[in-house]
Specification:
Length: 269
């Protein structure tokens, strides 16, 4: 299977696209501004505008849309849960279009459910673009450099790159390990083992125990590797040099313009 089809959530996808060549600090800042803008807006048309920008970014990054859609499956239950919570438990019960005993479904709850679900979807897609198009070490360096001003108030930011690297290392590793365990179960002839979780919860417990044990072993190996390289948590050299280019300025201008316009509209007008 080609690398184009094997994108794993949280894993970097190598390509020489415009989005890949952006400065990682630009992508982190643009993600922050977009998430804040998505969170404060209450207009579906404004969300559609942001969705268009995200879709254009996916096209420019040359990521396979079908693979991204498949990677959204683990987040589907969260999206459905957010939608149902607003649909079934809206405080304003006026204008109900369906009643199931004490539970009333209202048009207002339906609108809020769609809005919150759409927001969540856009935030996840934005994060996907960042992780898929940014080398993990570059992302860690970007976070480290952007958080340097916090040292003024006494916050130690030197460990943030290491923490970021750990997170970006273990997310795809856990995903791969889970898939490996599923393949092993299928090879043993237990292709219907997912259905047995409800009747035999011990199967799920055993699977989780194996997953946690393997994760602890991998983390122990990672710590040994870090100690063998004499890492002490202090300042270190950088493998990559970062420069702001015209494309970075354009991306920051668009994201900051959207952010400022939403702030003015919802807080000052």
């Amino acid at each position: 299977m080609s690398n184009l089809k094997r994108i794993i959530p949280g894993k970097y996808y190598h390509h020489n696209s415009i989005i890949h060549r952006l400065d990682p600090r630009t992508k982190v800042l643009a993600l922050i501004f977009l998430i804040i803008s998505i969170s404060i807006t209450g207009n579906i048309l404004e969300l559609l505008l942001i969705a268009l920008l995200i879709f254009i970014s996916i096209l420019f990054s040359k990521l396979p849309i079908i693979s991204i859609a498949k990677d959204l499956k683990p987040f589907l239950w969260i999206l459905v849960s957010l939608f149902l919570l607003h649909l079934l438990f809206e405080e304003n019960k006026a204008g109900a279009f369906l009643a199931l005993g004490p539970i009333k479904m209202t048009w207002n709850g339906l609108q809020k459910g769609i809005l919150v679900g759409f927001r969540f979807l856009l935030i996840v897609l934005s994060a996907f673009i960042l992780t898929y198009t940014t080398i993990p070490i570059c992302l860690a360096d970007a976070i480290s450099r952007l958080t340097k001003p916090f040292k003024i108030i006494g916050i130690n930011t030197e460990q943030l790159p290491l923490i970021t690297m750990f997170v970006m290392y273990f997310v795809p590793e856990l995903y791969n390990e889970l898939n490996r365990l599923i393949i092993i179960q299928n090879m043993k002839g237990r292709k219907t083992w997912r259905r047995k979780f409800i009747r035999e919860p011990n199967l799920l417990i055993n699977l989780l125990i194996i997953l946690v044990r393997n994760s602890i072993q991998k983390s122990d190996q990672l710590l040994i590797g870090i100690e063998s390289r004499c890492y002490n948590g202090h300042l270190r050299s950088n493998l990559y040099n970062y420069y702001f280019k015209l494309s970075d300025s354009l991306v920051l201008f668009i994201s900051i313009s959207i952010f400022i316009s939403f702030i003015i509209k919802y807080f000052f007008i």
